[in-house]
Amino acid sequence: MTTVAVPSRPVGELLRDWRRRRRLSQLGLSVDTGISTRHLSFVETGRSRPSPELILRLAEHLDVPLAERNTLLLAGGYAPAYSRHDLDDPELAPVRDAARQILHGHGPFPALLVDQHWHLVEANAAVGLLTAGCAAHLLAEPINVLRLSLHPDGMAPRIRNLAQWRAHLLHRLREQVAATDDDALHDLYEELRAYPGGEENPAAVAAAGSVVVPLRYRYGGRDLAFLSTTTVFGTPLDVTVTGLAIEAFYPADRTTGDALRDLTEDPPRT
Question: I need a labelling partner for 180 at 20 to 30 A (CA). Which of 5, 46, 65, 187 fits?
Fold first, then answer.
């Protein structure tokens, strides 16, 4: 079922905000979409009411998230175009099944499914190797995996390259905030950046923009090294699905791979 709050601002103002957020001029957006700058100006100032097709066309070029495209349509006086289902709804059963197959198939290496706000949806058994020793309050639902990673009572004390990993996660989250204009993500970013862990380290901040940032983790007396990838569902038409992502961790070296195979068979106490 789709539920969207009725916006208090007109659609033209909202479209203008998204254009400016994407650092585009009216001329630049006009060239991209084939819509005249005069018409764009009339839409943004409220002198012209855009059709739903025009709203969606502009939203597509501005890379507006699906939930916000529904908001734009409502502001323009139209019905939402994109559904929003709960993950437990029958309509999303194929998505759940596919995600579970990926998570299970990735073992013995850690993999987890998160929503748009980085809440844990599902995880395979190997993720328990990373969360062992974390405080109970961080493992109570809803579990936020970024908070769990960087909180002093979470994984942070066992991350060997905490300054680098912290800078990497904050860099990703900051880009997500800029792309979505999501208040919840903004609040999460402000919370996480207040945690200790190397925010004044210039080298760590520079490394956050590197092609690959490893996670170096201490577990059961062993040093493990991971590389991570993010997988999203292609061309989703549901607001919930568009926010889902699978975070998969791969061994960065043979030693880690061998250790993970051993640990999943007989995990030691920590």
Answer: 46
For the cut 50, the answer to whether the pLDDT of residue 269 exceeds it is: no
Cα separation of 70 and 59, whole Å?
A: 10
CB 42 within 8 Å of CB 67: no
Q: Which amino acid is at 74?
A: L
Query: In DSSP terms, which residues pair with 113 in a beta bridge?
Result: 122, 246
Is the pLDDT score of 16 beyond 60? Answer: yes
Residue with tokens 């175009």: 81
The one-letter amino acid code at 243 reads G
CA–CA dist 122, 39 (Å, integer): 46
Structure tokens at 217: 């983790």
Q: How far is CA 82 from CA 71, 86, 224, in A?
A: 10, 13, 42
- pLDDT the model gives residue 54: 97
Angstrom distance (rounded) from CA 224 to CA 239: 36
Report DSSP state, residue 84: -
| 62/14 Cα distance (integer angstroms) | 12
In the numeric block, the tokens 């880009």 are attached to: 175
CA atoms within 13 A on the CB side of 199: 8
Statement to judge: residues 102 and 193 lie in one domain:
yes
Give the pLDDT band of residue 1 (cuts 50, 70, 90).
very low
What confidence tens digit (pLDDT) does each residue in 216-258 have? 999 988 999 999 999 998 777 899 999 999 999 999 999 999 9
If you ran DSSP here, which 8-state letter would residue 50 be given? P
SS3 state at 248: strand
Q: State the burial class of residue 34 (Cβ atoms within 10 Å of its Cβ: 0-12, 13-18, 19+).
A: exposed
Output the domain CATH number for residue 45.
1.10.260.40
